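Q: Sequence in, structure out?
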Amino acid sequence: MPWKECRKMEEKLRFVARHLEGESISSLCREFGISRVTGHKLVERYRQSGMEALSDRSKRPYRMANQLPFQIESLIVNIKKEFPTWGAPKIRERMLTRYPELKTPAKSTVHAVLERHGLVRHKRAGARPKSQGTVLLGAKAPNELWCTDFKGEFMLADRRYCYPLTVTDFHSRFLLCCEGLESTQEAMAMTVFERLFREYGLPQRIRSDNGIPFASAHALHGLSRLAVWWLRLGIEIERIKPGNPQQNGRHERMHRTLKQATTRPPAINMLQQQDKFEDFIREYNYERPHEALGMKTPSALYEPSMRPYEGLPPVEYPSMTESSPSPNVVACAWSAGKSA
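A: Exactly. Output:
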């Protein structure tokens, strides 16, 4: 039966005494309702320290983390009050130089003291608004919606990384491009999209995720230079919700096929890898039937856009003979013209 609190010491003595008389640990543990580990521990303690070892031991830890004499803790607090902008590293360094005779605590201990006294200013959680997805619309005709993304980077045989930028037409699944780039920089992506716009015309909308270069966490409304360029061309922007790649499911399904066909194994260099991409585009668009398209090829459904690419519209400046605009208006117009 389990031990009662009032007779704990007596029960321990009986347990040890009966074991020393010859009874087995296993049978005694079953009778007293304890584990064999506890039984062996009691016997071992008795052999080492006698009856005193059977009394309850304090559960207080031997060492208190970040525990300091109150004089040193007061010194840390006073330095912080004298220099409110200093953190734990600077406070510790001042203690080393000004009070070398003291045993200086670690930076983590100094920081823990500041925490206990409420002298640490924490950054506001979620101060920057999280990226959010937009309303996602389908497409009933080619060029109503393009989908774009960077297929995850991979290393070529020459130890250089390749970042494939892919663009598909949502309605027809036509693979407009798969361009192996050296990075995800906006300038490289803008060059690829400008070539696509000249060849296929402008879509009504483009769907992407919230990553670089399609969006910028530090810009107004998360608009990157690439996104602003699309908007100025009259292209609407769709963004999937962060952490929900299934909202761009058709494009992600193409990525899986692309990876299997072109990256296992990767090519020797970027030029040879681009040749593999071009072969895949030709097969994917013109030879490979798609079950979702009624076993048709994407090329059978796709046709170029009726909206030609003619570059950015010119920025019109107000005439100086007219009423003078405010300085803010002039600055905005100048900035728009410069970015163009």
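Residues 5-54 form one domain.
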